[in-house]
Structures are given as C-alpha cells and as structure tokens.
Amino acid sequence: MKTEISWKRRFLRKKLKFMLICVFVVAVIFLAYQLSYFKELNQAAVGKLISGCIRSSNNIIIDKTDSKWNQSLHSKLVSDKEGRTVSLRGTRDQDILKYLPNERGKFVCFTSKDEIDFSKINDNYCDCLVDGSDEPGTNACNNGIFNCEMTSSQFTVKIPSYKVNDGYCDCCDGSDEWAEVKLYLNNVLKKYKLNLIMQRDGNLNRTIWDPLQLFNCDKHYKYAVVILNSPLNWKDDSLLQIWKKAQINVTVDGGTDRWLRYLEEQGIDLLSGNHNEYVPHLITGDMDSCPPLILENLKRLGSMIIETPDQDHTDYTKALFQLGQYAKKENINLNGIYVFVDSSGRFDHIMGNINTLYKSDKLIGHIQVIQIASSSLTWILRPGLHHIAIPKILVQNNTWCGLLPIGAPVNSIVTTGLKWNLNNATLQFGALVSSSNTYDNCSEVTVNTDSPVVWSMGIEPLQKI
C-alpha cells in the first residue's frame, strides 16, 4: 500500500514539474509575441500623436479620414487632394516626431529652427543649411546624416549624407544607394506623366532639342552657320565639318577676319581661291571691323556683301534678319541656326547676344537658334513643353547645365531629368535661379515653362567623341 502511494506521489510530482515547464515555455512564447506585437503597434501609431499622421515605411502619410485630423492644418497641407506623402528615408524611428508638421503645417529645422514647407523634406534641395535635417535621405546637404534602414552592432548604422547615391554601398542593406533601384521605375513614371500631359492638352507647344545634331551633322537637319566677331577657340577640325554641311554660311563683320585666321591655323589659305567650300555665302555688318581688301577678295570668290550701318541694332541682330531674307530668296527651309560666339570678356556683348536670342523669333521666325561656344550651348526655351536629349557622355561626366530667367521672371516652370528639379517653381533674379545644375542619370530633360527662359549646358566631353 505504501509502495503504491509513494509511486503516485512521485508521478504527481513529475506531472506537476512537466506542467510547470510547459507553462513557462508557453509564457515565454506569449511574452515574445506580445513584445513583437507592441513594437509593431507602436511604430504604426506613433505618428497619431500629431494630427492623424502615421508613419508607413519611409513615408509620412497624412490621413484625412482620421477623426483627430485638424481640418485647418489639412487644408494647408493637402489642399483638394486625397493626401500627400513626404519621404522620410534616412531617419530613425526615435526621430519620427521631429519630422511631423507643426501647427502651421511646417517642418522646423533642428538647429536653426527655420520653418519650411512640409513637402520640402527629402526633395533633394538643402533648405536647413546648418544641420541638413530636411534632407536625411539625400546627398543634397553635405553636413547631414543618413540612417541605414537595417542596423546591426556589426555594421554601419549611419553615414554622412554626401555618401548617399555615390555608387558605393556603405549600409549593410544597401539602403544608401536607393537611386539606382528607382531609376528604371522613375523613367517609366516620367514617360507616363508626359503622355498624360500630351493627352490632356493636344495643342501643347512641344519642342525637341538634340545637341548631338551639332556634331553628327544629320543630312535631314538643314541649318545655317553664323560666325560673329568673337574668338574661335576650336582646336580640331570639327568646326570645318559643321561649316561644310551647312545650307548657308554667314560671317558677321569682324567675324570674317576671325574665320580667315581660323582657317590659316588649319593650314587653309582661303584667299588663294583653292578652297571655295569655305567661302561665306553672306557677309553682313557695319563693316567697321573688317578690312576692305578682304571683303573685295571674298566678293570676287562669290560672297554676297550686305552692309548694315543701322546703329540701333547689333550686327548679330541685323545678321539674323539678313539671313532670313537670303534663305527666303534661295528657297531654303532651315531647321536651325548655329551661331558661333565665344565670350570675349565683354559682359555688354554677352547680354546683347542674349537679347538677340530673345527676339530671334521676330527676326527669323520659328527656327531653332543655338549659340555655340567652345565649351557650351545656349538657347531660349519659349513657353511650352521642351524635350532636350542629353548625350550619355554628358550624364556620365556630371556636366553642368542651367536655367536662367534673364529678361523677366518665370512664374511657373516644371522640369524632369535634372539633379535639382523645379516643381512649379518661380525663377527670377534676386530669388531662385537654377545655375550649376546637372543631370539625374537621365538621357532626357523636360522643361515646361510659361515664360521664355535661357537654357545653357556644358559640352566639353562631346568634343572628345
């Protein structure tokens, strides 16, 4: 009897111990699950501390359906849209509250306490210059900090902002090189948006610009060459090839003498009568900078000499007008005009040339007029949508480009394909101008402007092709 009772007691003790072990294991599993659940719940709800905003992945999403949403703040941030998303790439979870809009719908820079539009967070333009806090996910602010998405004690947790999208993986998860991943999708989205624009407005003024035509000399692209009285800093024979394939060649006053000297540097004596392909079709100007003997010799070789003494207009302006008359007389339909004009150190000449560009449509009609220097191209973008083909070598070399509101403010301009794009921006001197810009890994730039704006771009790498 005692043996049976003793056996039962041992069995009950073992059963109790087994049950306790099972309860402990279940409790541990349940606790781990609860911790995980509360962590996710906290991440999802942390943004609701202010105005119904929640954080989702790398974005703040403003939820207008939340009952706690402040309607006056909503009207400032969202307007009539369903919602607005602001990228929070590069931030830490514990910093999320700092990136929520204040009561005026503004973002407050950490150090300077400057207030900026909430939409300017991670827009690839540095507004908080002291600490770069508005650009945690881009390389726009060199003094900013990018926080990697996945962190570990064995790997880098944060890196300087200038290392973002530099082509080298610094975060263990590769989150600092996000631009390469998004490139394809961005290009598809850009084309989709442009198609929507064209479908919405079939009468939209759309112009295509292709800088490579200058060096390819496409036989289907009929153009004229105009050489002004400025340096011809071309070290190879590319200018000769452009000249020979032009429909009309014009030299302007002192530009005639400069053309002869350039030919001499190439070993060509034009006045010998053995190189008629380099004789100008038309020579214009007030002729105060070109020796009469040279004019007589070129007239003998076949040049048409038109003296334009009117001092109310520049020789450049008068040359475009005379070129138009000559093309009409010869029944030549031009697609473009290449005007060779390098800077000679005279700022008044530079501005005078830009002035002629502005009124070129009144002088020559709707023909593309491009000013060419040895290192740059410059032309006017008239109101409407423009597509500018960017040669791959210029993108690879981060070659400069710029949009300048010379003449009058540009009230609304939208661009794609630039490193620092303009989104319905206003350009004017004394405020914003888009100088020293470059390309965002795109082979095409689009510019939609409501006013004339000067486009200028570097071409040094093109001359090495």
Q: Would you write up a description of this structure?
A:
The protein has 465 residues and is an alpha/beta fold. The chain contains eleven helices and 22 strands. The strands form five sheets. The protein has a ten-stranded mixed sheet with strand order 12-11-10-9-13-14-15-22-17-20, sandwiched between helices. Strands 8-16-21-18-19 form a five-stranded mixed sheet, with no helix packed on it. The longest helix has 44 residues. The radius of gyration is 33 Å and the shape is elongated.
| Morphology call | elongated
The structure class reads alpha/beta
Number of strands: 22
**Rg value:** 33 Å
Helical stretch tally:
11
Order of the strands making up the biggest sheet? 12-11-10-9-13-14-15-22-17-20
Unreliable spans are 41-84, 181-185, 190-203
Largest β-sheet summary: 10 strands, mixed
Proportion in helices: 25-40%
Distance between the termini: 106 Å
Calculate the mean pLDDT score and round it.
Answer: 79
**How much β-strand is present in the residues?**
15-25%
Give the tags.
five-stranded mixed sheet, 465 residues, ten-stranded mixed sheet, alpha/beta, single chain
